[in-house]
């Protein structure tokens, strides 16, 4: 576990833009985000497809360079020189959504897990390191899997191989992008339990990127809900998911079977990130504004921008209706 005072990973004022198509305005994929991840903490980054969460995750790993803002790891700013990035990626590893796509079908399990060691010039006992990583990922006895190929494994076993490939470098942080989205329901719980065990046994920190608030509930200490490039609600997972305050969070939660209420059907699609609406970026789809309940702040919703939420553990929400005087602010 890291002994660094303060957060292990910290982003401040992060923006990532991509050139617009055919002269259009740049796409603001990440449009002002502060986010901290503490040592031994699991943070869930939640939102619909296209909200910017994968781009944010990749920028935190140095895979996408931000247009502005900063990323720090263990108290030191991220340096984008090739050698510095290589050293950083030994400490912060990515686990992708689709294990079939991230495993070379021509490589054995042993070679897949050993690849990171070879890239980083590991000088110790390679066989012992690979065996240890497979065992920690729940593939036991590990030697039984050394010479097997991805097509010979189940989906859950392939995901464990991918996790082992990250663990073999003994990172302090893993970023897991939809880590169980491609798995059967019966296997999802096993992989989530594995991530929790790794946190408890190794002090591993994790950012789990997901569209599934139910998954966040089962695994995260803290949740950040993202919409159109911004975090719109954040805080301890239990407080956010038992008493959501932002209308968007409420809509996401309403479709879970255990919510007990009627699902909130949002109108339309999220706006194009090259044409972010003025004011609250959710106002064009907001069920509270559409119902008339937020009439007192409707003009602010449509015209007044909201501040970037803090990146730490405090409960915060970016919503004019919630933060108006007398609304539980």
Automatic annotation (TrEMBL):
<keyword id="KW-0067">ATP-binding</keyword>
<dbReference type="InterPro" id="IPR050319">
    <property type="entry name" value="ABC_transp_ATP-bind"/>
</dbReference>
<dbReference type="Pfam" id="PF00005">
    <property type="entry name" value="ABC_tran"/>
</dbReference>
<keyword id="KW-0547">Nucleotide-binding</keyword>
<dbReference type="InterPro" id="IPR027417">
    <property type="entry name" value="P-loop_NTPase"/>
</dbReference>
<dbReference type="InterPro" id="IPR003439">
    <property type="entry name" value="ABC_transporter-like_ATP-bd"/>
</dbReference>
<dbReference type="InterPro" id="IPR017871">
    <property type="entry name" value="ABC_transporter-like_CS"/>
</dbReference>
<feature type="domain" description="ABC transporter">
    <location>
        <begin position="11"/>
        <end position="253"/>
    </location>
</feature>
<dbReference type="GO" id="GO:0005524">
    <property type="term" value="F:ATP binding"/>
</dbReference>
<keyword id="KW-0813">Transport</keyword>
<comment type="similarity">
    <text>Belongs to the ABC transporter superfamily.</text>
</comment>
<protein>
    <submittedName>
        <fullName>ABC transporter ATP-binding protein</fullName>
    </submittedName>
</protein>
<dbReference type="InterPro" id="IPR013563">
    <property type="entry name" value="Oligopep_ABC_C"/>
</dbReference>
<dbReference type="Pfam" id="PF08352">
    <property type="entry name" value="oligo_HPY"/>
</dbReference>
<dbReference type="InterPro" id="IPR003593">
    <property type="entry name" value="AAA+_ATPase"/>
</dbReference>
